[in-house]
Amino acid sequence: MNIIIMGAPGSGKGTQAVKICKAHGIPHISTGDLLRKNIADGTELGKQAKTYMDAGKLVPDELVIALLKARVGEDDCKAGFLLDGFPRNAAQAKVLDGIVDIDVALYLETDLKKLADRVASRRVCPKCGYSTSASQAPDGKCRECGENLIIRDDDKREVVENRLKVYAENTAPLVDYYKAEGVLKTVDGMNSIDEVNADIEAVLK
Ligand code: ADP
Ligand code: ZN
Question: Is the pTM of this model over 0.85?
């Protein structure tokens, strides 16, 4: 099964993506994680992407599309995969349609006004990608691997506002795009993590 998970920054799609992939044994392809890995490794692509990411802007399509094409072409994607953070605009959705068939587009519907706070309190593990909120990790350590949690560079408040704007302008219209293709499944993203996960699993059955 080829799945896309869509939702605003802070909608919880990264958290749900990890759970879905564990439950269904498919790879989790997060373009944000792939880009951050390139930045950490100091690659040329990473250097180019960082300026855009730190400003809360979309990384240019040609960079992200090349990254995505290479990744979905790998062997572990043959039996299905979950895309998290791609496509983020109409041009990316068209490219994706040309290379794979999407079976389900999961949309985590959220109240955009409440997301800025969620994102600002997010803490992530630089080693394994686990993400949580500051209040859930008072010791500042990753529950999965023990590493010290960090605040992502683009989770600063000024940048978050911009990411939400970019989302509303570029990415939100894709909900209608996948609705028209007949693969859209909407889940209420304002519920608890476990409730959202149960709703997703019900949809995937
Ligand atoms: P979130 O969904 O919380 O915004 P991501 O990790 O998915 O976080 O993305 C972080 C940043 O990476 C984005 O703000 C953007 O700059 C860049 N990025 C990720 N995926 C894409 C994409 N498909 N197209 C362009 N830029 C992207
Ligand atoms: Zn970790």
Answer: yes
